[in-house]
Amino acid sequence: MSMEEKVARYKMLSMKIKELESELGGLKEELHAYFDGKFGENQKGKAFIGDYSVQRQIRETEMYAEDSLLSRLEELQLEDCIMMVRKPDKEKIEAARTLGILSGDQLKDCITQKLTKVIVVKENR
After folding, report:
1. Rounded to 5°, angle at Cα 120 from 116 and 123
2. Which residues of the chain have pLDDT under 70?
3. CA 14 → CA 2, 6, 81, 82, 117, distances in Å?
4. Whole-model pTM over 0.70
């Protein structure tokens, strides 16, 4: 297979993945609507459809609303339950570099670079 054929195949498969993900998402919505109608909204259930056994599971995840939780912990004087995180402020660092307060040389051993490889294929017309 030539490199051009590989690029064409890559492009075709990428488009196919997008189509399949879209179709799969639509089918998933239809199945959830079916289970909502048969067992109730957000209810687990099992159905036998043709040769298939289809089961819907419901998973519940509990998360804290950080802003209101922080306020509540402060009201309750439970500061020990609040982490104080020291992090560099990227915006202020960039502003200091722009203003000449900080130089790249001063920070050179504090900067790491991450490379990400991305392939983009467009058809020439």
Report:
1. 170
2. none
3. 18, 12, 47, 45, 16
4. no
